[in-house]
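Hi V.,

You were right to ask for the full record rather than a summary. Here it is.
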Amino acid sequence: MPKQWEEKKVSLGGSIIASVLTLAIGLFIGLNWTKFSTNFLPYLGIKTSAANDWSSLDEVYNTLVENYDGEVDRSTIIEGAKKGLVAALGDTYTEYMTADEAKEYEAALHGESGTGIGVEMGLRDGYIRVLRTLPDNPARKAGIQAGDIIYKVDGEEVWSESTDVVSNKIRGEAGTKVEVTVVRDGEEKTFTLTREAINNVSAYVDYVGSTAIITVTRFDNDTGSIVQNIAKKEFKDKGVKKVILDLRSNGGGYVSAAKDLLSLWIDGDVVLEQRGNGITDNKTYANRSQAILADIPTVVLVNGGTASASEIVAGALKDYDKATILGEKTFGKGVVQTLLDLSHGSLLKVTTARWYTPKGNSINGEGITPDVEVELTYDDSNHGRDPQMDAAKKL
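Predicted structure:
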């Protein structure tokens, strides 16, 4: 019967030598870990980050503490340093957010506007401008108009701040007041408004005869499925023969929602390609067997506020000749941001790739030029005129 266990003889001298060698190798790697990890680990496919010398920052901080005539809040200094570190990249779309800012951003991304005055804002011509006011909300009732430059909030100048900063200053508890000063035609106008709960749906459909007008204000997680459900349940019964897709002043949102919306026109084909940060062939495909609007004449309305995921939709429909693009050149944001969670609830929104239309066109910094160019001025918007919609109905 064979033995299941065999006693093995081990040389004590050999064991000691092996232990000493193992200890020596471990000590060498430990003392030279930075150089070792930087030069060797990449061959194993493991990404590494080099050690950084922050002594110059320590010098600035210590000198500041020693000489500043006032109190230095260390946590505030650190948060500011994080923002400065990210801002130094010079990329408008890469941003560090504190825990509170991250909560506000996530809420806005999901349409949870909370309480405020009911305006949509964006950076235009170097200023934060009102892109549109929402119906039945304080801003429109008070007389704030599209095109107004937001100059001050509660007496503090904010015209040079980011949209996130301005939004955070305007938002607040329902029933509280906020003073907003705008610049219109070179003149300052100040409004005192009472914040209210904001109703801000991401998509809705209206009907004019046999034309369905789909308005998408942003791409939330469920925006595509909302429009899909409406189209499947209502369009046949209402005898829809034409669609107008309104993406004006839609700043974007989730790419997945854009893909779901495009699947109403495009059946299983490529709708987007991403390249960058090591990505060489990352393609997004439309869903299959959902293209119930593939043969329905479609007009897409766009303007200078049409950006990001909205441009993905307009670009794909244009490339596949599924729609006529009408309006004004789009914003030109063809980069992909990834949201990365950091410690203590903070968030890093970082540009990780650039996206291209199905035909390989990049619109970053260029925008999408409409097939039919029709201008809509701020004066038109403020007086209830819509020449773009009028032109779309006639096509």
